[in-house]
Amino acid sequence: MNIHEYQGKELLRRYGVAVLDGHVASTPEEAEAAARKLPGPVYVVKSQIHAGGRGAGRFKEDPNGKGGVRVVKTVEDAKAAAAAMLGKTLVTKQTGETGRVVSRVYVEAGCHIARELYLGLLVDRATSRVTVMASTEGGMEIEEVAADHPEKILRVAVDPASGISGFHARKLAFGLGLKGGQVSAFTKFVTALYRAFTELDCAIVEINPLVVTGAGEVVALDAKVSFDDNALFRHKDLEALRDDGEMDPKELDAVRHDLNYVALDGEIGCMVNGAGLAMATMDIIKLYGSSPANFLDVGGTADAARVTEAFRIITSDANVKAILVNIFGGIAKCDMIASGIVAASKNLHLQVPLVVRLEGTNVELGKKILAESGLSIIPAENLADAAEKAVRAVKGAA
């Protein structure tokens, strides 16, 4: 689960992470009032959407204008900047051409920037440890830095048994070329950030840029915070920070029904149980010449009601020209899934070709239910057969 910059900074502030003062606003008048609470004479007005590259982005309504992050010098200009952003659609590299509508801005105090650095924390699957990454190339896309100059990315893996220590932070600080009091400020910053990461069950915390001010302070100028969805049951207060407006309506609907769904831009809707099997299904659809319209894992305990909701979400995508169901029955037996497929197809008056591959517990009974349903369900013997038939159905409908 992602949250906005202003929400992330407020959480990090509670853990002692150095951030600048700022206030969120949803109207130009609120933005002006927010600026008046800050010392000035420089203010930064930032669009709040769940995407990076806001400063380099463009607004659909004003493609030749300024981006989604603007530096101003008066409270009146802060109000004008907010008016130019609010209600407009911001397009960045991460949003694609669809963009995101800006419904709030963050008005933050300016500061004297001496250096821009990068700092990020994530769980590294290779080491099974929280890894702290740092780079002198702050303010840039870290993916580009990793591709073009991997030697400029420093990494320190933290043993979960001992936690973070001063030597971890000092190693990074020296690698970044920090000196004197900057080293101690950086050490304090990293230690607090690691504590926030672990106690909040974060998936990633990214500070880009992390700035060194003219006074030698180390401050988070931006904050991207994402949480592990599987741990949200422990943090109801964090779950309340979810901005439904930033989510695809289909993905939001899926969350409410305990479905793992990600909207894609293909034409074959997928309903699968198990994340690995879902990935394999999407891959083989590509292999046979089409593309998946979604990732959808109904889970190992799927029942008829969840199958119906899954079908409803898939068919709400106007791009879907066929549906491929790939189920390996275990706890969720094939006959139960088959009954759910039949019920959903009838209730939703399914109009697109439906290809079903079943395997596992009670598979023969499941196939019998599908065959006797009276519906035009296309059976498949294996995954390759299912993908080939789904792609053929799409090509025939085109």
UniProtKB/TrEMBL annotation:
Q: Where does Mg(2+) bind?
A: N208, D222
Q: Which family does it belong to?
A: Belongs to the succinate/malate CoA ligase beta subunit family.
Q: Which cofactor does it need?
A: Mg(2+)
Q: Name one GO molecular function term.
A: ligase activity
What top-level branch of life does the organism fall under? Bacteria
The protein's annotated catalytic reaction(s) are: succinate + ATP + CoA = succinyl-CoA + ADP + phosphate; GTP + succinate + CoA = succinyl-CoA + GDP + phosphate
Quote the protein name from its UniProt record: Succinate--CoA ligase [ADP-forming] subunit beta
Q: What PROSITE patterns has UniProt attached to this entry? A: ATP_GRASP
Specify which residues bind ATP according to the UniProt entry for this protein.
Answer: K46, G53, R54, G55, E108, C111, E116
Amino-acid positions noted as binding substrate in the UniProt annotation, renumbered to this chain: N273, G330, I331, A332
Q: Which organism is it from?
A: Craurococcus roseus
